[in-house]
TrEMBL record:
Domain D-isomer specific 2-hydroxyacid dehydrogenase catalytic stretches: 23-271
Record's keyword annotation contains RNA-binding: no
This protein's name: D-isomer specific 2-hydroxyacid dehydrogenase NAD-binding protein
Record key words, sorted: NAD, Oxidoreductase
Entry keyword ATP-binding: no
């Protein structure tokens, strides 16, 4: 099968070639629909988070059967369009947070619409409702994927359930936490502080040229971007540039898992598929 890796770094190339041979296509650029001028015969592609896989992009890959994103999040991929084309998508699950928390002597609880009781027993944590989690936790961390169901999962209504003086950490996607609710909770002292690796509308907040390029914004988008700048100036808020994953060890694990995902697909036993 024809395999292509996009957004690939120099140190990754030997491992990829060692696994799939010299014929694998390697490109340091992202997949950009404005630069795709011809059809590609790739059947498998691997991407990172800056490649936006839309229905228009998929039209340039008529033979595509499998997308392996080298990330835990997959909101940069149009899953409905992939499903329509019968294209499978794999991702890199995140692990280790529970072990780290327990290393600090914490009692760990979790909320998930799809609880894995076997995993909970192995790692010695308890599943609870989101409401109970918010009201009883001293530190709340967000790890879920971003989609229509998780957009503003923490919002103006339920953020008031949070125990006064708690801390919120979001290393998942900015849109999971409603910015207006977060800013209000910090100003009112409901939250003692926040650690954010992601923000709503972070693309425009991060890149002023992108802001100018778009030109027109909805009122709520402009409000969110202004609130992001407010958050950046709050003394009890720590913001990092969507970079919490970026250690050498984590990047090596991400690449290793991605190679396993592709091997699984090639052998007829795909793993880590997006549900």
């Amino acid at each position: 099968m024809r395999i292509a890796f996009f957004e690939i770094e120099e140190w990754e190339k030997p491992r990829v070639r060692g696994k799939f041979g010299e014929d694998v296509y390697l490109d340091e650029k992202k997949v950009d629909e404005d630069e795709l001028s011809k059809e590609n015969d790739f059947e498998i592609i691997s991407i990172f988070v800056d490649s936006r896989i839309t229905e228009k992009v998929l039209a340039h890959f008529p033979n595509l059967k499998f997308i392996a994103t080298r990330s835990t999040g997959f909101d940069h991929i149009d899953l409905a369009a992939c499903k329509k084309r019968n294209i499978s998508v794999s991702y890199v699950p995140g692990y280790g947070d529970i072990k780290i928390a327990k290393g600090f002597g914490m009692k760990v609880i979790a909320s998930d619409p799809y609880p894995d009781e076997k995993f909970a027993k192995e790692e010695n944590f308890e599943y609870v409702s989101l409401e109970k989690l918010l009201s009883s936790s001293d530190i709340i961390t967000v790890h879920c994927p971003y989609n229509e169901k998780t957009r503003h999962l923490i919002n103006k209504e339920n953020i008031r359930l949070i125990k006064k003086g708690a801390y919120l950490i979001n290393t998942a996607r900015g849109g999971i936490v409603e910015t207006d609710a977060l800013a209000g909770a910090l100003e009112e002292g409901i939250l003692a502080g926040a650690g954010l690796d992601v923000l709503e509308e972070e693309g425009e907040t991060k890149e002023e040229m992108e802001f100018l390029r778009r030109g027109k914004f909805k009122e709520d988008e402009l409000k969110t971007m202004l609130q992001n700048h407010m958050l950046m100036r709050m003394p009890n808020v720590l913001i990092t540039p969507h970079n919490a994953f970026n250690s050498r060890e984590a990047l090596e694990r991400i690449l290793g898992t991605t190679l396993e995902n592709i091997e699984g697909f090639l052998s007829g036993g795909p793993v880590n598929l997006v549900p």
